[in-house]
Amino acid sequence: MAGHNVVLLDATFSMFSMRARIALAEKGIEYEKKEQDLANKGPELLQMNPIHKKVPVLVHNGKPICESLIIVQYIDEVWKDKGNPLLPSDPYARAQARFWADFVDKKVADASTRVWTTKGEELETAKKDFISALKQLEEELGDKPYFGGEDFGYVDLALIPFYSWFYAYETLGNFKTEEHCPKFIEWAKRCMQRETVSKSLPDPNQIYEFV
Asked: Distance between CA atoms of 115 and 101, rounded to whole angstroms?
Protein backbone atom coordinates (compact mmCIF):
# COMPACT_ATOMS: atom_id res chain seq x y z
CA MET A 1 0.00 0.00 0.00
CA ALA A 2 2.71 2.47 0.97
CA GLY A 3 4.27 2.57 -2.48
CA HIS A 4 6.62 5.20 -3.83
CA ASN A 5 4.03 6.67 -6.12
CA VAL A 6 3.59 9.89 -4.12
CA VAL A 7 2.82 13.28 -5.66
CA LEU A 8 2.10 16.51 -3.79
CA LEU A 9 0.07 19.22 -5.50
CA ASP A 10 1.66 22.10 -3.68
CA ALA A 11 1.96 25.88 -3.42
CA THR A 12 5.21 27.08 -1.84
CA PHE A 13 3.71 29.89 0.26
CA SER A 14 0.61 28.00 1.45
CA MET A 15 0.94 27.21 5.16
CA PHE A 16 -1.45 24.30 4.60
CA SER A 17 0.85 22.83 1.94
CA MET A 18 3.78 23.31 4.32
CA ARG A 19 2.07 20.89 6.73
CA ALA A 20 2.07 18.15 4.12
CA ARG A 21 5.72 18.83 3.27
CA ILE A 22 6.76 18.62 6.94
CA ALA A 23 4.81 15.39 7.48
CA LEU A 24 6.41 13.76 4.42
CA ALA A 25 9.85 14.95 5.59
CA GLU A 26 9.25 13.61 9.12
CA LYS A 27 8.52 10.19 7.63
CA GLY A 28 11.36 10.40 5.09
CA ILE A 29 9.01 9.88 2.14
CA GLU A 30 10.28 10.74 -1.33
CA TYR A 31 7.69 12.45 -3.49
CA GLU A 32 7.19 14.52 -6.60
CA LYS A 33 6.25 18.13 -5.88
CA LYS A 34 3.97 19.81 -8.42
CA GLU A 35 3.71 23.56 -7.87
CA GLN A 36 0.22 24.93 -8.54
CA ASP A 37 -0.70 28.41 -9.77
CA LEU A 38 -3.64 29.22 -7.49
CA ALA A 39 -4.61 32.27 -9.55
CA ASN A 40 -4.94 30.05 -12.60
CA LYS A 41 -5.81 26.55 -11.40
CA GLY A 42 -4.75 23.77 -13.72
CA PRO A 43 -6.71 20.68 -14.81
CA GLU A 44 -4.84 18.30 -12.49
CA LEU A 45 -5.77 20.26 -9.35
CA LEU A 46 -9.40 20.62 -10.48
CA GLN A 47 -9.57 16.91 -11.23
CA MET A 48 -7.90 15.78 -8.00
CA ASN A 49 -9.78 18.20 -5.70
CA PRO A 50 -13.03 19.08 -7.51
CA ILE A 51 -14.85 19.96 -4.27
CA HIS A 52 -12.56 22.61 -2.77
CA LYS A 53 -10.14 23.20 -5.68
CA LYS A 54 -7.37 23.92 -3.16
CA VAL A 55 -3.88 22.75 -2.25
CA PRO A 56 -2.46 20.64 -0.81
CA VAL A 57 -3.54 17.42 -2.48
CA LEU A 58 -1.55 14.27 -1.77
CA VAL A 59 -1.85 11.82 -4.65
CA HIS A 60 -0.82 8.35 -3.47
CA ASN A 61 -0.90 5.51 -6.01
CA GLY A 62 -3.15 7.66 -8.19
CA LYS A 63 -5.69 8.36 -5.43
CA PRO A 64 -6.13 11.93 -4.08
CA ILE A 65 -6.29 12.86 -0.39
CA CYS A 66 -7.40 16.45 0.31
CA GLU A 67 -7.33 18.87 3.28
CA SER A 68 -4.01 19.37 5.06
CA LEU A 69 -4.82 17.85 8.47
CA ILE A 70 -6.45 14.81 6.86
CA ILE A 71 -3.33 14.43 4.69
CA VAL A 72 -1.08 14.56 7.79
CA GLN A 73 -3.20 11.88 9.52
CA TYR A 74 -3.09 9.75 6.37
CA ILE A 75 0.70 10.02 6.12
CA ASP A 76 1.02 9.07 9.80
CA GLU A 77 -1.21 6.00 9.35
CA VAL A 78 0.17 4.74 6.03
CA TRP A 79 3.84 5.15 6.99
CA LYS A 80 3.47 4.37 10.70
CA ASP A 81 6.63 2.26 10.64
CA LYS A 82 8.71 5.24 9.44
CA GLY A 83 9.96 8.14 11.57
CA ASN A 84 8.28 9.24 14.79
CA PRO A 85 4.51 8.98 15.14
CA LEU A 86 2.87 12.36 14.51
CA LEU A 87 -0.32 11.64 16.47
CA PRO A 88 -0.26 10.18 20.00
CA SER A 89 -1.28 6.53 20.43
CA ASP A 90 -3.45 7.28 23.50
CA PRO A 91 -7.05 8.01 22.36
CA TYR A 92 -7.54 10.94 24.77
CA ALA A 93 -4.21 12.55 23.85
CA ARG A 94 -5.05 12.02 20.17
CA ALA A 95 -8.44 13.71 20.62
CA GLN A 96 -6.75 16.66 22.38
CA ALA A 97 -4.20 16.98 19.58
CA ARG A 98 -7.01 17.05 17.01
CA PHE A 99 -8.87 19.65 19.07
CA TRP A 100 -5.89 22.04 19.16
CA ALA A 101 -5.09 21.53 15.47
CA ASP A 102 -8.72 22.42 14.77
CA PHE A 103 -8.32 25.49 17.01
CA VAL A 104 -5.36 26.55 14.83
CA ASP A 105 -7.49 26.21 11.69
CA LYS A 106 -10.45 28.10 13.15
CA LYS A 107 -8.83 30.80 15.30
CA VAL A 108 -5.24 31.36 14.18
CA ALA A 109 -5.90 31.01 10.45
CA ASP A 110 -8.89 33.36 10.56
CA ALA A 111 -7.23 36.12 12.64
CA SER A 112 -3.92 35.93 10.74
CA THR A 113 -5.67 36.28 7.37
CA ARG A 114 -7.45 39.39 8.64
CA VAL A 115 -4.11 40.87 9.81
CA TRP A 116 -2.84 41.13 6.24
CA THR A 117 -6.13 41.76 4.42
CA THR A 118 -7.74 44.52 6.52
CA LYS A 119 -7.00 48.09 7.61
CA GLY A 120 -7.98 50.55 10.34
CA GLU A 121 -10.26 49.29 13.12
CA GLU A 122 -10.67 45.89 11.49
CA LEU A 123 -6.90 45.44 11.53
CA GLU A 124 -6.70 46.39 15.22
CA THR A 125 -9.39 43.82 16.04
CA ALA A 126 -7.58 41.20 13.94
CA LYS A 127 -4.30 41.83 15.79
CA LYS A 128 -6.06 41.45 19.17
CA ASP A 129 -7.72 38.21 18.04
CA PHE A 130 -4.42 36.89 16.67
CA ILE A 131 -2.49 37.59 19.90
CA SER A 132 -5.38 36.22 21.99
CA ALA A 133 -5.32 32.91 20.05
CA LEU A 134 -1.54 32.64 20.46
CA LYS A 135 -1.84 33.31 24.21
CA GLN A 136 -4.35 30.46 24.50
CA LEU A 137 -1.88 28.22 22.68
CA GLU A 138 0.92 29.36 25.01
CA GLU A 139 -1.25 28.33 27.95
CA GLU A 140 -1.83 24.90 26.41
CA LEU A 141 1.91 24.53 25.69
CA GLY A 142 2.77 25.32 29.32
CA ASP A 143 6.34 24.33 30.18
CA LYS A 144 6.50 21.49 27.64
CA PRO A 145 9.02 21.74 24.76
CA TYR A 146 6.30 20.74 22.27
CA PHE A 147 2.50 20.59 22.42
CA GLY A 148 2.47 16.81 22.78
CA GLY A 149 5.27 16.76 25.35
CA GLU A 150 8.90 15.89 24.65
CA ASP A 151 8.48 15.13 20.94
CA PHE A 152 7.52 17.25 17.95
CA GLY A 153 4.06 16.13 16.82
CA TYR A 154 0.69 16.84 15.25
CA VAL A 155 -0.18 20.21 16.83
CA ASP A 156 3.35 21.55 16.34
CA LEU A 157 3.18 20.50 12.70
CA ALA A 158 -0.25 22.12 12.24
CA LEU A 159 0.89 25.42 13.77
CA ILE A 160 4.54 26.01 12.80
CA PRO A 161 3.86 26.90 9.12
CA PHE A 162 2.15 30.11 10.27
CA TYR A 163 5.45 31.23 11.80
CA SER A 164 6.94 31.67 8.32
CA TRP A 165 4.25 34.33 7.72
CA PHE A 166 4.95 36.24 10.96
CA TYR A 167 7.36 38.70 9.32
CA ALA A 168 4.63 39.62 6.81
CA TYR A 169 1.94 39.88 9.52
CA GLU A 170 4.12 42.00 11.80
CA THR A 171 5.35 44.29 9.02
CA LEU A 172 1.87 44.88 7.60
CA GLY A 173 0.20 45.09 11.01
CA ASN A 174 3.01 47.06 12.67
CA PHE A 175 3.37 44.91 15.81
CA LYS A 176 5.79 42.40 17.35
CA THR A 177 4.46 39.00 18.40
CA GLU A 178 7.40 38.40 20.74
CA GLU A 179 6.40 41.36 22.95
CA HIS A 180 3.06 39.65 23.68
CA CYS A 181 3.91 35.94 23.36
CA PRO A 182 7.62 35.29 24.11
CA LYS A 183 7.02 31.64 25.02
CA PHE A 184 5.32 31.07 21.67
CA ILE A 185 8.36 32.46 19.80
CA GLU A 186 10.69 30.24 21.87
CA TRP A 187 8.60 27.22 20.84
CA ALA A 188 8.68 28.32 17.17
CA LYS A 189 12.48 28.70 17.20
CA ARG A 190 12.76 25.23 18.78
CA CYS A 191 10.66 23.78 15.94
CA MET A 192 12.74 25.65 13.34
CA GLN A 193 15.85 23.82 14.55
CA ARG A 194 14.40 20.65 13.05
CA GLU A 195 15.63 20.14 9.50
CA THR A 196 12.27 18.64 8.50
CA VAL A 197 10.67 21.98 9.43
CA SER A 198 13.30 24.50 8.30
CA LYS A 199 13.63 22.87 4.85
CA SER A 200 9.84 22.71 4.38
CA LEU A 201 9.17 26.39 5.14
CA PRO A 202 9.93 29.22 2.68
CA ASP A 203 11.95 32.34 3.51
CA PRO A 204 9.79 34.89 5.44
CA ASN A 205 11.08 37.71 3.22
CA GLN A 206 9.84 35.88 0.12
CA ILE A 207 6.42 35.52 1.73
CA TYR A 208 6.34 39.25 2.49
CA GLU A 209 7.18 40.02 -1.16
CA PHE A 210 4.48 37.56 -2.25
CA VAL A 211 1.87 39.25 -0.03
From this structure: 20
Q: Where in the chain is the domain with CATH 3.40.30.10?
A: 6-78
Please write the tens of the pLDDT for every residue from 35-76.
Answer: 999 999 999 999 999 999 999 999 999 999 999 999 999 999
Distance CA 179, CA 116 (A): 19
Residue extent(s) of CATH 1.20.1050.10 domains in the chain: 91-210
Q: pTM score > 0.85 for this model? A: yes
The architecture of the domain spanning 91-210 is: Up-down Bundle (1.20)
Whole-number Å distance between alpha carbons of 81 and 87: 13
What class does CATH assign to 6-78?
A: alpha beta
Q: Are 131 and 174 in contact (CB under 8 A)?
A: no
Q: Say what the pLDDT of residue 4 is.
A: 57
- 118, 147, 142, 141: which is closest to 130 by C-alpha? 118
